[in-house]
Write a structure and sequence with these properties.
By secondary structure, the protein is of the alpha+beta class. Among the domains are: about 10-70, no CATH class; about 135-195, no CATH class. The protein is about 45% helix and about 10% strand. The chain has helices spanning about 25-35, 60-65, 105-115, 120-135, 135-155, 160-170, 175-180, 185-195, 205; strands at about 10-15, 15-20, 40-45, 50-55. It has a four-stranded antiparallel β-sheet with strand order 2-1-3-4, sandwiched between helices. α5 packs antiparallel against α6, α5 packs antiparallel against α8 (about 185-195) and α6 (about 160-170) packs antiparallel against α7 (about 175-180). The radius of gyration is 24 Å and the shape is flat. It comes from Methylocaldum marinum. InterPro entries: DUF2239. This is DUF2239 domain-containing protein. Pfam families: DUF2239.
């Protein structure tokens, strides 16, 4: 059984990081900070995806913790078929598949129908293969999106922002680090950490000099 990692949040007051950790810990620290009558704007993000987190900090700390966004809690896996307390119907086990419309050309349907197991089995195999083949590309894309969302929210007006974004999507981590050198310390540190996951080492064939 796979276990989802615990979400991590990060909170900033202005350009200063004030909390980093599990959602309940960050929510408690942010609530305590806001209650000191600080006038700084507080922004909270998922530390990995940079998804913004909205909390109603006008409530008591107990109410804030009781009303944390549901997406901050790892999703529980469904009980396996046949587990105690879960009736299991007779016949073939359910695969958890979802029926949706797929539009293909006639020759595609003909090829799929000729495959062992039919069209559905063949499509699932093709999708699984593509998911494995593109796993690294998908991870890089998600990492770039997370870094961009954070940088745009926290440093959109900073010098070097446009150059940093160009470097991010070019996979040039060294150039990005140079572009963000003058950003506020905590913002720069988190932006660089997010961008590291999106960095790409250019293949030698792209940098090799043409032969004479």
């Amino acid at each position: 059984m796979s276990i989802n990692p615990q979400p991590m949040w990060i909170a900033f007051a202005g350009a200063k990081r004030i909390a980093l950790g599990p959602p309940r810990d960050v929510a408690s620290e942010v609530k305590a900070f806001v209650d000191t009558d600080s006038q700084d704007m507080v922004l909270i993000f998922d530390a990995v995806t940079s998804r913004p987190v909205e909390l109603d900090l006008r409530r008591s700390v107990t109410e804030v913790l009781d009303r944390l966004p549901q997406t901050s809690v790892p999703a529980a896996e469904p009980a396996p078929h046949g587990a105690a307390g879960v009736p299991r119907a007779a016949g073939r086990p359910k695969l958890g598949v979802t029926a949706r419309e797929v539009t293909l050309l006639p020759r595609h349907w003909e090829w799929l129908a000729s495959q062992p197991g039919g069209a559905s089995v063949a499509l699932r195999k093709l999708v699984e293969h593509a998911m494995r083949a593109n796993k690294q590309d998908d991870q890089i894309r998600r990492a770039r999106e997370a870094a961009y969302k954070f940088m745009n929210a926290m440093a959109g007006n900073e010098s070097g922002f446009e150059e940093a974004i160009r470097a991010l999507f070019a996979g040039d981590h060294g150039r990005l680090v140079q572009a963000v050198a003058n950003w506020p310390d905590d913002v720069r540190t988190h932006a660089v950490a997010l961008a590291e996951a999106a960095a790409i080492t250019r293949p030698e064939r792209e940098t090799a000099q043409p032969r004479a």
